[in-house]
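Notes from the 1:1 (GR / supervisor)

We went over the backlog. Supervisor wanted to see one worked example end to end before approving the batch request, so GR pasted a single chain during the call. The sequence is below; no edits were made to it. Supervisor asked that the structure be written out right there so they could see what the output format looks like.
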Amino acid sequence: MRVVFAAVAALLLASCTQPAEPPVSAPPTAVAEEPPFELPRPNVIVEADPPPPFTYWAPEGSVIRNHRNPGLWVAHLNGQQTIYFGDSCRASEWQSYIGQSLSSIPPAPAGMTIRTYCTTCAKTDDLRPDRINVVFEEDTRLITEIACH
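Structure output shown during the call:
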């Protein structure tokens, strides 16, 4: 009986000891992925603080300022305004389609909305920052703009 008691006690004590610390390893280093193409960088003046993550959407020569709503920016040029919602719809990933035929746009991935319209066509002005808008020339059907708005 003492032998059984001693064996059980030894097992209980062994299970109470803390395991050895795992070896310390260096944290993984993040590798930034390079985009497969260069985003356009128009010549603009950025007065916004914080600045927008991208400026590909702004007209050449415009001044970018903060919108009254945080997270929005406005490009001002010759009395015209272009509103930018940031890259909430991931339009930066679609910029390589500019200059290509409208038929080159793939179907929208699950959970994504794509709206296409021509530069001279009527469209609704509802603002949906999660929607990709693909603008094309009616005659040539070439894509001229891809943006979130």
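Supervisor's comment: Residues 60 and 146 are 16 Å apart (CA to CA).
Batch request approved.
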